[in-house]
Amino acid sequence: MKSKNLLILMAATLVFAGCSTTPSESHPEKKPPKADRVQVLMYDTAPRLKTSHLDVYDLQPPEKPYKVIALLTCEGRVDQEAVMSTAIFYRARQIGADAVIRAGNVTTQKESFSLSRYGGGGISEARCVFNYRAIVYDNK
What is the distance between the alpha carbons of residues 66 and 69, in angstroms, rounded to a whole number? Predict the structure, then answer.
C-alpha cells in the first residue's frame, strides 16, 4: 500500500512539474501607458529576442562597443517625461535592445485660441518629443 501511494505521489509530482511555467512566462511584462504612442525607426531589422533588462545612458554613450539599432520617440506634455520614458524603455526591450541612450528632447510651445460668448482666450501648452537610441552591445 505504501509503495502504491509513493508511486501516485511521484506521478503527481511529475505531472505538476511538467505543467509548470518559468517565472518569466507566468508574469509577462505589463504594457505601460502610452507604449502604443512610441514611434520606432529601425536601423537594423535583424531578429532579436525580447530583453528583460535595459541599461539607460543619459547622453554619454557606454564605453563598451555597441551598435545603434533604432531611434525611439514619443511625444507628450513636458510633465509626462517619466510616463513617456517608461513607454520607450518597454518598446526598447520588445525589440531586443540591451540599452538606450538619450538622444535629447525637443520642446515646442503649442498655442490655441478659442472664442466664447464671454470673449476669447489663448491656451499655451508645452509639448515635448522624447528621443532615445536603442543599442545592442557588440561583445555579447
Answer: 9
What CATH number is attached to the domain comprising 106? 3.30.110
Concatenated DSSP letters for 26-49? HSPPPPPTTGGG-EEEES------
Which grid cell is 92? 526598447
Asked, for residue 132, whether it belongs to a domain, the answer is yes
Q: What is the dihedral of CA 65, 68, 74, 78, to 10 degrees?
A: 40
What residue has cell string 505601460?
32
pTM of the model: 0.70
Name residue 114's beta-bridge partners.
121
CA 76 to CA 127: how far, in whole Å?
6
Kind plus residue range of the DSSP H or E element containing 69: strand 66-77
pLDDT digits (tens, 9 = 90+) for 73-93: 999 888 898 999 999 999 999
Give dist(CA 132, CA 70) in Å, integer: 8
> What is the tally of structural domains in the chain?
1
Q: In this structure, which amino acid lies at residue 90?
A: Y
The C-alpha atoms of residue 90 and residue 49 are separated, in whole angstroms, by 13
DSSP 8-state secondary structure symbol assigned to residue 96: T
